[in-house]
Amino acid sequence: MTWLAYVLGDIAVFCALMLLVWKAELRLRWALPWALIICPGCLWLAHQLSLHIPGFSFGLQVLAGLFLSLAASAFAVLLLFFRDPARTIPRDPRAILSPADGKILYINCVADDEFPVAVKKGKHIPLREFTGETLQLTHGLQVGIMMSYLDVHVNRAPIGGTLERVKRIHGGFHSLKHMDSLLENERIFSIIRGPDIRVGIVQIASRVVRRIVPFVKEGDIVCQGDRIGVIRFGSQVDVLIPNGQGVSVLVERGDYVKAGLSVLARLNVSNDTM
Predict the structure, then answer these.
(1) Residues 134 and 34 reside in one and the same domain
(2) What CATH number does residue 205 fall under?
């Protein structure tokens, strides 16, 4: 294989791998350096194999390089997925921490116990279709956090308190690119009652996710930042925050947050509860 053929093959493998990165919505600052290293390495390995296998054409070398790149990438993703790093939690009774690693998708206002986005043919629907029960949330916020395949998938308690509700809502496994899926997919809704506020957490399954595993049950007492569950592979976690008497939101759409470390919002004064 000439150097020109090697470069062209490397470009082909790199483009194919980056297309999958784009489809999986992985962060480029992680995926790009990996692809720049793994693609030429796997193509070189495929070339070395061709020296010992008769009839191993250039096209087969490119396909073998792509296969090896995908296999190595899948193995790396699995290693990242199953990690559960220890974290030093910033104990702050006025802070509402992120329950998940990932990117802030939206920060929606909730009013009069209605789902904040008009779905189902443009009609507003009760919030209970999302949470499985009436919350009496007259004024609050819904913060959506998207977890990619490369994020830590263990979820943590945003505040300390008592698990007032842990409820599984059975449903399907559709892509979360459509807001309707938030109301149709399998999810677990939890409420943590703290000294000054009740915060709701909704762990949502996606097309790939087939299991949400809670680590807690109703009546359990958790400290801020404790592990409360895990979602298998990329998915989404929403946080419902009452905002009746003053909550300062400290994140914006597009921000990257970490479970148990990043502060989503801060209580200013005594707050309305759900």
Answers:
(1) no
(2) 2.70.70.10
Q: Does 57 qualify as catalytic in the annotation? A: no
Three-state helix/strand/coil letters over 166-222: EEEECCECCCCCCCCHHHHECEEEEEEECCCCEEEEEEECCCCCCCEEECCCCCCEE
Question: Residue 273 falls within a domain, yes or no?
Answer: no
Residue 143 phi, psi (nearest 5) = -110, 120
Query: pLDDT tens digits for 104-126?
Result: 999 988 887 777 765 555 567 77
Same domain, 36 and 62: yes
Do 111 and 272 form a contact (C-beta atoms < 8 A)? no
Task: Give the per-residue pLDDT at 26.
Answer: 66
In the set 206, 235, 248, 270, the catalytic residue is 235
- Using an 8 Å Cβ cutoff, are 119 and 264 in contact? no
E strand or H helix at 140: strand 139-147
Same domain as 61, residue 99: no
pLDDT at 44: 81
